[in-house]
Amino acid sequence: MENIGYMPRWIFDIAGFHIVLNKETxxxxxxxxxxxxxxxxxxxxxxxxxxxxxxxxxxxxxxTWDDLVKDSLGLTDRRYFAFICTIFLLFWVSNLIxxxxxxxxxxxxxxxxxxxxxxxxxxxxxxxxxxxxIKTYLKEYCEPIFFMMPLNVIGELSKVVSIxxxxxxxxxxxxxxxLVVSYLVYSLVLPPFLYGFFGLFVGTIQAxxxxxxxxxxxxxxxx
Amino acid sequence: MxxxxxxxxxxxxxxxxxxxxxxxxxxxxxxxxxxxxxxCEAIGRNPEEAGLLTxxxxxxxxxxxxxxxxxxxxxxxxxxxx
Lengths: 223, 82
Fold this sequence. Notes:
The structure holds two protein chains of two kinds.
Chain A: E1 9-14, E2 17-22, H1 23-43, H2 53-73, H3 81-96, H4 110-132, H5 134-139, H6 149-184, H7 190-222
Antiparallel strand pairs in A: 1-2
Helix pairs in contact in A: 1-2, 1-3, 3-7, 4-6, 4-7, 6-7
Chain B: H1 5-24, H2 26-45, H3 50-64, H4 66-80
């Protein structure tokens, strides 16, 4: 019970910089990436017209996100598809990995979600500048009158905070509730159901929501 | 046993965490229930759009939830950091 907020760390100094790495987050993120690399290699090893189970799973995932991206952005090419699909796959398995014993979610660390949120923010604003031109992009901050500019800027920045704190809070809160309730009932009967709800259900929904909101922010910028 | 200033601060932080979580859960509860009810009405009117409506409902509920998540983060900070 005492180790709820505890994060194992690597601390070292290189060339005058004091570097702190969250050990658990790093290792778990690499496990997630290894899982998807392995999955992709196995799924595409022998592609056929009549697919094997792995290939059809991959096809369902890819086709669903391809349709979603096409619907929301209205572009004919697939330039944002890879980014959006990657975010979803990474966060989905990151949220689900907590149901396996001895593994913990990398999204329990605020650094993971905040960095991906910032990446989504930069992609959205870069594509906004590219699609609309710098002049129209800057003019939108002065809507409806010039004095509203600070409010608009803070509104844009708060999107990053809200999107990343939402994912972090859900996963962290879920794992704390699982820990506390497991402690109270001596790990009898209840924990599997809690893992089912907070791990599978909430994890899937929150990964989907994070990805959809990144997509919506991009589509708001490029239209 | 005498109570010192640090104990009072701890106690106030725990009470604050409870109040923050309890009051902060009201808004998201009302909002999510409203969104869910309206989505059910809309699905009842045209059931063939159920997939799109469910997707939109989930995103809207997650957005409505964010104030509750903020209060959760504040409560966690009060419990584990103060």
